[in-house]
Amino acid sequence: MAPRVGLTTERLTQAGATLADEVGFDQVTVSELARRFDVKVASLYSHVKNSHDLKTRIALLALEELADRAADALAGRAGKDALVALANVYRDYAREHPGRYAAAQFRLDPGTAAASAGVRHAKMTRALLRGYHLDEPDQTHAVRLLGSVFHGYVSIEMGGGFSHSAPDTEETWSRVLDALDALLRTWPPAS
């Protein structure tokens, strides 16, 4: 176990994110983190206010990590290539970091959300959608559609919902992305 020396908010947030990946985001508490560091819970309160504050920090970290990955994946891509790249960022991140992925869905208060990397996610998705020539409100509808489909598919897949039948989920994922691309190409213009 790590010694008390060197505890920082950043280190605790990283450890909390690792803990979330190991045991699930819902199971992350300041008490569990204190056990990991072999310190008293009170020792952590100078770095995090409570479990909600810790979870908020983990959520912000996850959103930042996802935004960085998305930006790297989207660089130089457009159209279906960009759509597939963004979708795969979310799916791969969820597979690699299930607790952090769950944290990225954590409800943030409006001020925290507005200052988070969630704003970058929306901007990148809107930039991707410019390749489909969507105007408002269709662009907003499409942002919501993509988020819903990506999150829904990934959540069901991670929960084992597709593991009991053929064909392979990779084939289905590819067809889902093909269908989204086709839909976005034919989306009716705003009236």
TrEMBL record:
Keywords: DNA-binding, Transcription, Transcription regulation. The keyword Glycoprotein does not apply. It comes from the Bacteria. Residues 29-48 bind DNA. Residues 6-66 form the HTH tetR-type domain. The keyword Transcription applies. This is WHG domain-containing protein. It comes from Streptomyces griseoincarnatus.
